[in-house]
Amino acid sequence: xxxxxxxxxxxxxxxxxxxxxxxxxxxxxxxxxxxxxxxxxxxxxxxxxxxxxxxxxxxxxxxxxxxxxxxxxxxxxxxxxxxxxxxxxxxxxxxxxxxxxxxxxxxxxxxxxxxxxxxxxxxxxxxxxxxxxxxxxxxxxxxxxxxxxxxxxxxxxxxxxxxxxxxxxxxxxxxxxxxxxxxxxxxxxxxxxxxxxxxxxxxxxxxxxxxxxxxxxxxxxxxxxxxxxxxxxxxxxxxxxxxxxxxxxxxxxxxxxxxxxxxxxxxxxxxxxxxxxxxxxxxxxxxxxxxxxxxxxxxxxxxxxxxxxxxxxxxxxxxxxxxxxxxxxxxxxx
Length: 334
Ligand SMILES: [Zn+2]
Ligand SMILES: [Zn+2]
Fold this sequence. Notes:
This protein is an alpha/beta fold. It is 25% helix and 25% strand. The protein folds into two domains: 2-147 and 285-333, Medium-chain alcohol dehydrogenases, catalytic domain (Quinone Oxidoreductase, Chain A, domain 1, Alpha-Beta Complex); 150-281, 3-Layer(aba) Sandwich (Rossmann fold), CATH 3.40.50.720.
């Protein structure tokens, strides 16, 4: 099969022919139809993830058709359209697993990091990592929902917001353009925060009621004019920008971070205790959360805006994402 490997830490993508994998007894073999390129694929390219082994095929926004199932697989059938996201499997035995908290499994696998992912014609994944894809959504549009989509959808629906709340989405990129749609469709007074006026019309089209240009306006003050945000969902991995909006939280407001960055966010205890404010993070979700995300997207017409590339053009496609030029998610089609 044709596949894209990163062969060493910091190495280029190499398009190569390797043997098609076969599923273990608890695994599914998927014929890949689409795989989104996520910012976290840089962990593979740059070797920043602890314990990563090379060569490795990246990709954790995968949609395809079940080609073969292992002998212990009961739930999935050949020919079914399925997907795999970031959460690539769990052990069922550690303490978080015994509590049903699979996303926090101590032995959790990540697709495209712990094992080969979807930048290829075929991939295998454990059965517990598989989500069904509703027929209303095409494979290329479903792919980004398996990481970008689930991350913001699951964060929003578990954040405690209720219809009519002021919900700000900071950053209009791969995650943010989906978060605006979900928040609006959940009935929130949705505020888009960006540094570019170019995105104003798009933000409104996606469902934002308000637009704040954080370069020209004080975003925190603007949010306070709306009564203060019940939730600010930080979707762009820039800690300085995240720090700058904390003052926009209302009473019981929460800043929820879903963009993976290692830089610190700065806040004083005073800023938080007056008004019972909080800062928190949210780590995407499991396969069933992916299914919920896809079904909600089918129900509400939420779709990612995508650019499609063939596997051979992986480097070009990846650079579009990493340089923040993609509008808004790049999807590889084997
Ligand atoms: Zn991702
Ligand atoms: Zn576990």
